[in-house]
UniProtKB/TrEMBL annotation:
Family of this protein: Belongs to the bacterial ribosomal protein bS18 family.
UniProt-listed HAMAP family: Ribosomal_bS18
Species this chain originates from: Acacia podalyriifolia
UniProt cross-references to Gene3D superfamilies, sorted A to Z: Ribosomal protein S18 (4.10.640.10)
Key words, A-Z: Plastid, Ribonucleoprotein, Ribosomal protein, RNA-binding, rRNA-binding
Pfam families associated with the record: Ribosomal_S18
A single Gene Ontology CC term: plastid
Keyword ATP-binding among UniProt keywords: no
Main location: plastid
Domain of life: Eukaryota
Name this protein carries in UniProt: Small ribosomal subunit protein bS18c
Gene name tied to this protein: rps18
An example molecular function term from Gene Ontology annotations: structural constituent of ribosome
Length: 105
């Protein structure tokens, strides 16, 4: 392959995220928040098995543990920081557009 053609091809893995690993002694349980939180994205979604590189059994256990922790309020359903930023932007936009006063006749 020519050098000119290689420049335009994009590599498949341009961004590598550090993958969480499950050690042999780790218990996959809803109480182990440090382990469970590694398998959740910034938006609060459960990462897929392909991204996590887990076995099917491990992914099932992680999913069940995350759902149990969310129900027991140990883990949030949404990322609160991101939600707070969105609400803050909306409130500031509403305040700036609502400042116009009507003139009285």
């Amino acid at each position: 392959m020519d050098k000119s053609k290689r420049l335009f091809l994009k590599s498949k893995r341009s961004f590598r995220r550090r993958l969480p690993r499950i050690q042999s002694g780790d218990r996959i349980d809803y109480k182990n928040i440090n382990l469970i939180s590694q398998f959740i994205s910034d938006q609060g979604k459960i990462l897929s098995r392909r991204v996590n590189r887990l076995t099917l059994k491990q992914q099932r256990l992680i999913t069940i543990a995350i759902k149990q922790a969310r129900i027991l309020s140990s883990l949030p359903f949404l990322n609160n920081e991101r939600l707070a930023q969105i609400l803050k932007k909306r409130n500031s936009a509403i305040r700036t557009t609502g400042l116009k006063k009507k003139k009285r006749k």
